[in-house]
Write a structure and sequence with these properties.
The chain is of the alpha/beta class. The protein has 10 helices and 10 strands.
Length: 266
């Protein structure tokens, strides 16, 4: 355990997020809402400005071709007794022992819950060790053979939340921001095991998109997404040929179990 002089407020904690995709937006929003205010986001694994940070958050470095080399570069670049590292991982293929051999002693498995994630950052800052094991129910959902899923959603934050959930089951994901884009992807001879479809989108909404998909003879399961859970909406979802209804905000456990149930019916 590392003992360091504690700062009085988390707003003073210097946080760096190293991330090469859009997930940094979500982690930034989580931290900012929690009270962390000194937050930097970077795509670089090098500390070119020799800046000092209290916590460095590494998003999915396990996906780098040479993770050992990558993490060593990061540790050397941000080498300071005041710096702690927290890795966010989506892979379930590596044991805690292997990660410890690499020097990754603090890690969380995605998808992350906003409160537990921010609490983990605070605890790492205070010198505690954080590690996460994939819950047993998620291990049962993991697909060794990738399933291809189309996410039709125009809200970037919802896309990120869904992406983090789907990474748990080893899904290959395509995105469309409206119903027309979804139909175009399907017409390009793309086969999907399942579609997650928002109902209210610009250009072409989820209802009309589903009608066109069904009229074209496609029978893959379609999950409707909506913040409106009224009986009339649920009935309309059934009428257009959707297989399940899911209410926002998105709960990872419930979404993954619905996906598993629908795919196994096929």
């Amino acid at each position: 355990m590392i003992f360091r002089k504690k700062k009085k407020r988390i707003s003073e904690c210097r946080v760096l997020i190293i991330d090469n995709d859009e997930t940094s937006k979500l982690t930034y929003l989580y931290l900012d809402a929690y009270g962390f205010k000194n937050i930097t986001v970077s795509r670089q694994i090098y500390n070119s400005k020799n800046a000092q940070y209290d916590v460095v958050i590494l998003n999915d470095i396990i996906n780098h071709k040479n993770i050992n080399y990558t993490f060593n570069i990061i540790k050397e670049s941000f080498n300071s007794p005041e710096t702690s590292f927290l890795a966010l991982l989506s892979s379930t293929s590596y044991s805690k022992e292997y990660l410890n051999q690499l020097g990754i002693s603090n890690y969380l498995l995605r998808p992350i819950n906003s409160t537990s994630f921010c609490d983990a950052v605070k605890r790492v800052w205070n010198g505690e060790q954080i590690y996460d094991d994939l819950p047993e129910q998620y291990q049962q959902l993991f697909y060794k053979v990738q399933k291809k899923i189309l996410v039709v959603e125009d809200d970037e934050i919802n896309q990120l939340v869904i992406e983090q959930a789907l990474q748990i089951i080893n899904a290959k994901i395509d995105y469309a921001s409206n119903g027309k884009e979804a139909i175009d992807l399907i017409e390009q001879n793309n086969y999907y095991d399942l579609i997650i479809m928002d109902l209210n989108m610009p250009v072409l909404n989820g209802y009309d998109a589903t009608k066109e998909i069904r009229n074209a003879g496609h029978a893959m399961p379609i999950i409707a997404l909506s913040s409106d859970s009224s009986d009339s909406i649920r009935e309309k979802v059934k009428e257009v040929g959707m297989n399940a209804f899911f209410t926002k905000p998105i709960n990872t456990d419930s979404l993954l179990h619905i996906i598993r149930k629908l795919i196994e019916k096929e």
